[in-house]
C-alpha cells in the first residue's frame, strides 16, 4: 500500500466526468452481438430434457421415438459423458471442511433436483431438438426428497449423497469476546428476531447462452460465452475436457445482464462444449425462461435467528445469530456455495463497533436447484440482520435509530481498523455518509409528516441501512483456496499507426460500462481523445490474463491496470519522441493526440507522425534504438483481502393495511466508492442495484412445493420490479479514495442490492412496530403482511 | 398438414417474400431468416417486452406472433429506426441518460417509448412509467429510461 502517487486534484477531461458510453451507439442501432446473434456454418442446436422430480433413480431412458424425428442428429445421456468430462467438485481449501460430491454435466444414475439436465438432444434446429426431447421417456424411481433446509440435518431426513453421513456441506463458527458475559448483565436490553430470506434468482434478460465449436485439425475449442469470467471458463473447459488450456478460446461479446448468475459452471454448458468436441462441429445452446428459473443459480435461502444486546444508553454490546442456508444438492463449481454464508459471518455488523460477537452458519444440501453467488453475495442478509436488530434495539430503549447508529458506527477518523470479525477496514466514511443521507432526505421533516399522516389513517415508515460492501478482492477470496480465478487483471495498450490507441483488458463488460471506464482512464492518462480509444474485453486469446468482472472489481482493478499501462506507454512514447525531437523526454508531454512541450503545451509532433515513423520508416531512427509502442501492466490488491466501500441508504414507504401492499415513495443512497471515474455510471449501478434489492424485499421468490417442484417458472408468476412500482432513487456521493491504488477507485456494483432490502424491511417494520407486530420475512408479500397485520393493534 | 407457407412482409422499408415454417414465431423469422438480430428474445411468453416492435403503426410482441400472421404487414425493428426526428432524438437521449446498460431490453424499450411519444405522450413521469410497464429492464432500475423519454417529450425534436 503505497498510497496515491498521483493526485486527481485538477479535473480530468474524462476521469470524474459523466461521459457517455461508446457502447450505447452499437446497442441503440440494434448492432449488438449477443450469443444468439451468432450463426456459424454447420451449427447444430441443443435442447435438454430435465428431471421432472426432485430426487429419483434413473432406471432407463427410452430415446427411440425421439431419434426418429427428422433433423435429430444425436442424443446424449449422462453415461455418454463418462470418460469424456472429468467430474468437478465445488470445494475450496480455505473454507475448511467444505464438502460436496463430484458433478457431471448430466445426471448419470440419480437426479437430485427438478431441472437437472438428464438427456441432451442435438438437432438441426432448436425447435426440433425441443420436440425430440419431449418424446423421450424417462423411467424414474422416486426417492424421498430432502427439500426443507430446516429439516435437512434431522435424523430421519433422506441423505442426498450416500458417501456423506449427513446433509451438512459446511459449518463455521465465529466467536469474539464473550456474549454470555453481556447477557448476564442486568443493565442491558436484548432483542431477538427470526429473519427469513426467500430464494430468488437473477433473471438476466438474456438467458444463459453458449456456442461451442471444435476444430479437430488444430484441437481448438472456441466458446462464445455469455458470461463474466472468460479466463476462468477457459481453464474449466480445458481441464474437464482434457485439452491444453491454450487451445481453448472463450469469447464474450455483448452479455445481456449477468449479476453473478453468469459466473458459474453449468452442466448444460459443459455438455454443449463436450458434445461439440465429440461431434466436431458447432453447437448452440440457449436456455429458455423455464430452464433459466430451474437451472440458473438461486440465491439467499437463509433462516436466521438473531439477537442483539445494547446498553440503555445506546451502545451495542453483543450480536449473536445462527444462520442456516440450503444450497441445493451440490456446492456450485468452482466458487462454491459456502461463500454466501461465509460472507454473512464476515460482514454482519461490519459498519459498527461490536465488542462481543458469536455466530454459527450451517450450509446444507437439499433437493432443490443450486444456490450460489448472485449480486451482493451475503450482503443483503448481513445488512438486514444487523440493521433490523438495531432498529428493534433502538425501539426497545426508546431511542431514535439514527441516533443509535451514530453512537455505534465506526468513527470516520479511526481508520485503518479491523471489524469485530477480523476484516481489515480502511478509508471508510460511515458517519459522513449517514449525515449526508439525513440531510438529503430531510429526516426530521419526514418523520413529522409520517406522524401527522398516521392520524389520518395513512401508514408510512422510514427504514435505514448503514452498510459495507466487499469490492476489489485480492487473491484471498478464491485464489488462495485453489480456484482458477484470477484476482489480478491486466491491460495492454498499443499506439496504432493512425495515432489512436487500442486497450485490451481482462475485465469484462455486461452493461456496467466497464469498457467506457477503461477508455476514460486510458484517454486521460495517455493524452488522447476518447474517440481515438478502442477497447477489447472478453477474449482469452487477445487480452491479458485476468479475473473478469464480478465482486465489483472492474473499475478498481481493471481500471488501475489500464492506468498503469497508460503511464508506461506514455513513458515509452516520450522516450521515442525525445530522440526524434532531440529533446529530453521529461520536457515533453502528450496532449490531445500530440506530443507537446511540457511547459508551453506547444505541439511538437502528432502521435500519428511518431507512430508512422516507428512502424514504417524505422530507417529514420538511430539503429541502436528499439522503440516499443505497446505496454502491458497488471494490478492486484495486496496487503488487504478486500477493499471495502460504505454506504448509507433509506427508504420511505407506505403500507396499505387493507391490502398489505407496500408502496415505495422515495429512496436515497449515499455511496462512498472512492474515486468516482464516471459519476453517471456509478449512479446507474446504485439505482439498478437498489431496484434489484427492492425486488428481493417485496416481490421475488422461487417458490417450491414440499416435494421440490418449482412452482413459478414464468415471468408472469415470478415477479420482478416494473417501472410503475419503482421510486425515484436519489444518489449522493462521498469520495474517500482507497490507498491501495493510484486511481483510488473502489467498486459500486453491489451496494444497492446489498443495502436496499434492509431499508425496505426496516421501513415496513417502522410502520408495524407501533401496531405491536413485526415481520422479518422477505419478500414481504401482501399475503404475508396481511397475516402479520391480523394480530396488529389498529 | 401444411408445414410451410409463403409470406410477403415489408421490414424496415424493404419487401421480403419468404417461405416459412408455419409454426415459426415472428421474432425467430426476423432474427434467423432475415438476419435482423436487433430484436431480442427474453422470455418467449410475451411478458418481458424485449421483442416488442412496430407493426403497422402499433407495438406487438413478436414472440407471441407467428411469422405467417405478419403476411402483408409493415414492420419496423430497431435496425430500421430513422436517424432523424423523434426516433433519433430518443436514441440520443437514451445514450445521454445511460438509459441502457446491457442493451438487451433496449429494442423493445425504444419501440414502446416511440409509441408513447408518437401518440402525443406528455412529459409526465408517472404516465411514462405506466406506458413502459410492459418492458422489463433488469439493469437500470428504470429511472434513467423514464428520464430519457421525459426529456424528448419535454424538449421535442431539436432542429
Assembly category: heterodimer
Total strands of chain B: the figure is 5
Low-confidence stretches of chain A: 1-5
At the fourth level of CATH, the homologous superfamily of the largest domain in chain A is Aldehyde oxidase/xanthine dehydrogenase, molybdopterin binding domain
* Continuous helix count of chain B: 5
Number of domains of chain B: 2
CATH structural architecture of the largest domain in chain B: Roll
**CATH fold naming of the largest domain in chain A:** Aldehyde Oxidoreductase, domain 4
- Radius of gyration of chain B, rounded? 16 Å
Outline of chain B, from the CA principal axes? elongated
CATH fold-level topology of the largest domain in chain B: Ubiquitin-like (UB roll)
Please count the helical segments of chain A: 18
Distance between the termini of chain A: 57 Å
Instruction: Report the radius of gyration of chain A as a whole number of Å.
Output: 28 Å
Give the end-to-end Cα distance of chain B, rounded to a whole number of Å.
55 Å
Mean of the pLDDT scores of chain A? 97
Strand order in the sheet with the most strands of chain A: 3-5-1-12-9-10-11
Mean pLDDT of chain B: 97
Please explain how this structure is put together:
The complex is a heterodimer of chains A (794) and B (159). Residues 1-5 of chain A have low confidence and may be disordered. Chain A contains 18 helices and 29 strands. Chain A is globular, with a radius of gyration of 28 Å. Chain A has 794 residues and is an alpha+beta fold. A 7-stranded mixed β-sheet of chain A has the order 3-5-1-12-9-10-11. A 6-stranded mixed β-sheet of chain A has the order 7-15-14-13-8-29. Chain A folds into 3 domains: 23-32 and 488-635, Aldehyde Oxidoreductase, domain 4; 35-143 and 203-295, Aldehyde Oxidoreductase, domain 3, CATH 3.90.1170.50; 376-472 and 640-784, Aldehyde oxidase/xanthine dehydrogenase, molybdopterin binding domain (Aldehyde Oxidoreductase, domain 4, 2-Layer Sandwich), CATH 3.30.365.10. The relative contact order of chain A is 0.13. In chain A, α9 (379-396) runs parallel beside α17, α13 (514-527) packs parallel to α14 (554-581) and α16 crosses α17. Chain B has 159 residues and is an alpha+beta fold. Chain B folds into 2 domains: 4-80, Ubiquitin-like (UB roll) (Roll), CATH 3.10.20.30; 85-155, [2Fe-2S]-binding domain (DNA polymerase, domain 1), CATH 1.10.150. Chain B is 34% helix and 17% strand. Chain B is built from 5 helices and 5 strands. Chain B has helices at 26-33, 85-97, 106-118, 125-131, 143-155, and strands at residues 4-11, 14-21, 52-55, 58-61, 74-76. Chain B has a 5-stranded mixed β-sheet, sandwiched between helices. In chain B, a hairpin with a 2-residue loop joins β1 (4-11) and β2 (14-21). In chain B, α2 (85-97) packs across α3 (106-118) and α2 packs across α5. Chain B is elongated and about 50 Å long. The termini of chain B are far apart. The relative contact order of chain B is 0.16. At the A-B interface, α1 and α16 of A face α2, α3, α4 and α5 of B.
Amino acid at each position: 500500500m503505497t498510497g496515491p502517487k498521483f493526485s486527481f486534484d485538477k479535473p480530468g477531461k474524462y476521469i470524474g466526468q459523466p461521459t457517455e458510453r461508446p457502447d450505447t451507439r452499437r446497442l441503440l442501432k440494434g448492432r449488438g452481438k449477443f450469443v444468439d446473434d451468432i450463426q456459424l456454418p454447420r451449427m447444430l442446436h441443443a435442447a435438454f430434457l430435465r428431471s421432472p422430480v426432485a430426487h429419483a433413480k434413473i432406471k432407463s431412458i427410452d430415446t427411440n421415438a425421439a431419434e426418429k424425428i427428422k433433423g435429430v442428429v444425436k442424443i446424449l445421456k449422462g453415461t455418454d459423458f463418462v470418460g469424456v468430462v472429468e467430474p468437478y467438485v465445488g470445494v475450496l481449501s480455505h473454507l475448511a471442511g467444505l464438502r460436496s460430491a463430484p458433478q457431471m454435466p448430466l445426471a448419470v444414475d440419480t437426479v437430485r433436483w427438478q431441472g437437472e439436465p438428464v438427456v441432451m438432444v442435438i438437432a438441426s434446429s432448436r425447435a426440433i431438438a425441443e420436440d425430440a426431447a419431449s418424446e423421450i421417456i424417462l423411467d424414474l424411481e422416486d426417492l424421498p426428497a430432502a427439500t426443507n433446509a430446516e429439516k435437512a440435518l434431522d435424523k430421519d431426513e433422506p441423505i442426498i449423497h450416500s458417501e456423506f453421513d449427513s446433509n451438512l456441506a459446511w459449518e463455521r463458527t465465529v466467536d469474539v469476546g464473550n456474549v454470555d458475559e453481556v447477557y448476564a448483565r442486568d443493565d442491558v436490553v436484548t432483542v431477538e428476531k427470526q429473519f427469513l430470506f426467500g430464494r430468488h434468482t437473477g433473471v438476466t434478460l438474456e438467458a444463459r447462452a453458449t456456442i461451442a465449436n471444435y476444430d479437430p485439425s488444430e484441437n481448438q475449442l472456441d466458446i462464445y460465452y455469455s458470461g463474466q469470467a472468460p479466463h476462468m471458463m477457459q481453464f474449466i473447459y480445458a481441464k474437464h475436457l482434457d485439452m491444453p488450456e491454450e487451445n481453448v478460446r472463450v469469447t464474450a461479446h455483448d452479455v445481456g445482464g449477468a449479476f453473478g448468475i453468469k459466473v458459474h459452471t453449468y452442466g448444460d454448458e459443459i455438455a454443449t462444449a463436450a458434445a461439440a468436441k465429440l461431434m466436431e462441429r458447432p453447437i448452440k445452446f440457449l436456455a429458455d425462461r423455464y430452464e433459466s428459473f430451474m437451472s440458473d443459480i438461486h440465491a439467499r435461502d437463509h433462516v436466521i435467528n438473531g439477537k442483539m444486546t445494547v446498553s440503555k444508553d445506546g451502545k451495542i454490546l453483543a450480536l449473536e445469530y445462527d444462520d442456516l442456508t440450503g444450497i441445493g444438492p451440490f456446492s456450485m463449481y468452482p466458487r462454491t456455495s459456502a461463500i454466501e454464508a461465509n460472507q454473512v459471518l464476515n460482514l454482519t455488523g461490519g459498519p459498527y463497533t461490536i465488542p462481543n460477537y458469536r455466530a454459527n452458519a450451517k450450509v446444507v444440501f437439499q433437493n432443490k436447484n443450486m444456490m450460489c453467488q448472485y449480486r451482493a453475495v451475503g450482503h443483503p442478509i448481513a445488512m438486514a440482520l444487523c440493521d433490523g436488530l438495531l432498529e428493534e434495539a433502538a425501539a426497545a430503549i426508546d431511542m431514535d435509530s439514527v441516533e443509535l447508529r451514530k453512537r455505534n458506527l465506526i468513527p470516520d477518523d479511526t481508520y485503518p481498523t479491523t471489524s469485530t470479525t477480523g476484516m481489515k477496514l480502511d478509508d471508510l466514511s460511515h458517519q459522513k455518509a449517514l449525515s449526508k443521507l439525513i440531510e438529503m432526505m430531510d429526516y426530521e421533516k419526514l418523520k413529522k409528516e409520517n406522524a401527522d399522516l398516521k392520524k389520518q389513517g395513512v401508514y408510512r415508515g422510514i427504514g435505514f441501512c448503514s452498510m459495507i460492501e466487499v469490492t476489489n478482492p485480492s487473491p484471498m477470496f478464491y485464489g488462495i483456496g485453489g480456484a482458477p480465478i484470477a484476482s489480478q487483471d491486466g491491460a495492454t495498450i498499443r499506439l496504432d499507426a493512425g495515432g489512436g490507441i487500442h486497450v485490451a483488458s481482462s475485465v469484462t463488460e455486461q452493461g456496467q460500462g466497464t469498457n467506457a471506464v477503461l477508455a476514460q482512464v486510458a484517454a486521460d492518462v495517455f493524452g488522447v481523445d476518447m474517440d481515438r480509444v478502442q477497447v477489447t474485453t472478453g477474449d482469452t486469446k487477445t487480452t491479458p490474463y485476468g479475473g473478469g468482472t464480478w465482486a465489483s472489481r472492474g473499475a478498481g482493478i481493471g481500471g488501475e491496470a489500464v492506468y498503469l499501462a497508460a503511464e508506461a506507454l506514455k513513458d515509452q512514447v516520450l522516450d521515442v519522441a525525445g530522440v526524434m525531437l532531440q529533446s529530453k523526454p521529461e520536457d515533453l508531454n502528450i496532449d490531445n493526440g500530440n506530443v507537446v512541450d511540457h511547459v508551453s503545451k506547444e505541439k511538437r509532433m502528432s502521435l500519428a507522425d511518431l507512430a508512422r515513423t516507428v512502424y514504417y520508416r524505422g530507417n529514420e531512427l538511430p539503429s541502436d534504438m528499439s522503440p516499443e509502442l505497446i505496454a502491458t501492466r497488471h494490478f492486484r490488491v495486496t496487503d488487504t483481502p478486500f477493499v471495502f466501500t460504505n454506504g448509507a441508504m433509506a427508504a420511505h414507504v407506505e403500507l396499505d393495511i387493507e391490502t398489505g401492499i407496500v408502496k415505495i415513495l422515495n429512496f436515497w443512497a449515499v455511496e462512498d466508492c472512492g474515486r468516482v471515474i464516471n459519476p453517471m455510471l456509478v449512479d446507474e449501478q446504485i439505482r439498478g442495484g437498489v431496484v434489484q434489492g427492492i425486488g428481493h424485499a417485496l416481490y421475488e421468490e422461487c417458490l417450491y412445493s414440499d416435494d421440490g417442484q418449482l412452482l413459478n417458472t414464468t415471468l408472469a408468476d415470478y415477479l420482478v420490479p416494473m417501472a410503475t412500482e419503482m421510486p425515484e432513487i436519489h444518489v449522493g456521493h462521498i469520495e474517500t479514495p482507497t490507498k491501495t491504488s493510484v486511481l483510488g477507485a473502489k467498486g459500486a456494483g453491489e451496494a444497492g442490492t446489498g443495502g436496499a432490502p434492509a431499508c425496505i424491511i426496516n421501513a415496513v417494520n417502522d410502520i408495524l412496530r407501533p401496531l405491536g407486530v413485526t415481520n422479518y420475512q422477505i419478500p414481504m408479500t401482501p399475503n404475508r403482511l396481511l397475516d402479520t397485520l391480523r394480530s396488529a393493534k389498529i | 398438414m401444411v408445414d410451410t407457407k409463403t409470406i410477403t412482409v415489408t421490414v424496415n422499408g424493404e419487401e421480403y417474400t419468404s417461405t416459412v415454417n408455419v409454426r415459426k414465431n415472428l421474432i425467430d423469422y426476423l432474427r434467423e431468416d432475415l438476419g435482423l438480430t436487433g430484436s431480442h428474445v427474453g422470455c418467449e411468453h410475451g411478458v418481458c417486452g424485449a421483442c416488442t416492435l412496430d407493426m403497422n403503426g402499433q407495438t406487438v410482441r413478436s414472440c407471441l406472433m407467428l411469422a405467417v400472421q405478419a403476411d402483408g404487414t409493415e414492420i419496423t425493428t430497431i435496425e430500421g429506426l430513422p436517424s432523424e426526428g423523434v426516433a433519433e432524438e430518443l436514441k440520443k437521449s437514451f445514450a445521454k441518460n445511460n438509459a441502457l446498460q446491457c442493451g438487451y431490453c433496449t429494442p423493445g424499450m425504444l419501440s414502446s417509448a416511440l409509441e408513447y411519444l408518437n401518440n402525443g405522450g406528455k412529459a409526465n413521469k408517472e404516465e411514462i412509467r405506466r406506458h413502459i410497464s410492459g418492458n422489463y429492464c433488469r439493469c437500470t432500475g428504470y429511472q434513467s429510461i423514464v428520464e430519457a423519454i421525459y426529456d424528448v417529450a419535454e424538449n421535442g425534436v431539436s432542429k
